[in-house]
Amino acid sequence: MDSRTFYPYLDNFDELTIIIPLKNYRETVSFKLVGNDEVIDLDIIQKIDLGEEVKLVCSFDAYIDLGKIYCVENDEMEQSELYTGKIVRTDLFDNVYNYKKNDLGYTYTKKSTKFKIWTPVAKYVKLELVRLQEKPEILDMLYTNSGVWRLLIEEDLDGALYRYHVYVNGKEQVVTDPYAIASSPASEYSVVIDLKKTYQMKHNPPFKGEIQDAIIYEMSVRDFTIDPEMKFQHKGKFIGLIEKGIKTPAGHPAGLDYFKSLGVTHVQLMPIFDFDGVDELNPGKSYNWGYNPRQYNVPQGWFSVHPNEPYSRINELKQTIDTLHANNISVVMDVVYNHVFDPVNYPFEKLVPGYAYHVDREGIYTNVSGCRNDLATHRKMIRKLIIDSVLYWVNEYKIDGFRFDLMGLIDFETMNELRQELHAISNHIIVFGEGWKMYSSNMADRMAHMGNKKVLHTIGFFNDTFRETIKGATFDLKIKGYATGNIKKTDVVKEMLLGSAANRYLFKYASQSINYVECHDNNTFFDKCLALTKDIDLIHKQQKLATSMVLLSEGVPFLHSGQECYRTKKGVENSFESGDDINAFDWGLVDLYQEDINYIKKLIEFRKNHEGFKMKSSSDLLQFAEVLTLASKSMMFHLNNKENIIIVFKPLKVEETIVVGEGYRLALSSEPADASLDHSSYVLKEIGTYIFIQGSENA
Fold it and tell me: Looking at the annotation, which residues are catalytic?
């Protein structure tokens, strides 16, 4: 029980505040600061009535060593230890303790291991080390500079467990390493490993294009192989994704063979770092998508065949990525650097209380993310953590791209610095994220949302206007979109087809537009349509139309796994912890809808073979792309930069005649079309997509 009569906090390098319960306050009270072999006078410059407490703001003229214990003493000789307060959120603190070297965590060799951890406000730091088959040993660490504590142990520590004991703000706490790259189950200890002993990746990233050349397919490691009707050997695991020769019940390719056959360039893996909400050692006990960050640089044990073996986690993930690369599939990593799962117990809060998160005027964590905390990414050591983490995944695991969850909560300086660091490694690493404008205050001016597209031109954004316009309202199931029969907003549909960039509608470049109609969040397209109609044949036509628009618009196409075969989550809108019954990829749908899947494959191949879908600049779009709204409200999309292509997107079941002109042939369509004798016009009767190309009958 805290028996102190007052509570002092260091708020700046020359200012502290003292909180005194009203019952303990006297008007004549005086204070001094005692510590580091000196006594420092405190001048009370402001008194603030807080109701049940009194707040005194005090100034002083002395240097405070943050690594030493100081006490505030009143005129009755009562003392209270000085805690760090708002000082950790000052620009001066951020500048003074900005550590720039890239050696936080540990540096391992067979002869020695060097441990480094950042905590400028700790009074002491001890390393708890558990060598193989031995009892824990507690070792003192030495403070060096810029807030870093260091310890060198000259022996081979491969496989040793470690964590830290840190004394901050009046108590000692146990802390795991925020830079850990390996872990024991449940994140109890960090683990020293020799990365040279891990699986050595043999294949380089296969993607050699720019972001507009990508076709992204989002999937969950667990969901994709957990179907009980399938014969995956490693269900729900990293290496389950790369099992070859797996067949559906009807004998069609599944798993790796399936998404390889789709022709997508990238698979986007939902969170694969260590997250909370699941039991690694009891994988069937609970379910979670993984947007609960716990350890940013540690592979998730839930997806490992041997989660209690640190090397296995790493080896299995590396092998998975390497095999995908060998099969010409690149990997996008879904990352969550906007919040953490447990803000109180996340290492940074124990190491430097009050530093890692945004707080309101009362010092309470903000909750813009909806996850009880928002990381203060503009602070230099949080920015460093994010950038160091991204670079680690690229350099060690050869990750090909990053999708940033709630990117609008990350400042654009961090995103741009990160983007430049990635460019220095490769020009083919893609970066995009959820660019919603989430702050209404002046903080919005510095965040990486779509409104700041002019300073984020090499970063893509999920185009929710595309989703809402084509599919219909996400949060009102009864509101239709263009593909589901609402033909009122054809002017917006036109802009979507042009990558939202031809007239600077949303973006400066079409390459900034990530076009999609469904993802892991919210209802699938099929479930949305079920709220509008029970006509399954109509739903299938509408979904094929919407997916066609995703794949044939300017910008970057993004597909949710199962979108090609009418995936359903049984009406569950937010299935983040709904379990396998709701989230599992149903391979039976692949058998049912082979014809429709083959159509999507042809669309993907068509896009890849025609450069007209990959225009970037606004000037090119205006010169070489044209969208006409026909009387029936069908959209005629004409591309003529290197070849002439006409695409008709038809949302209504009305008969209409399309005049395409001489020399055009129907190259690919989702529904039949009757041609005139000279093939200059076609009669279209069904909802669907019709592609005409000049001088060819084939896609």
Answer: 405, 434
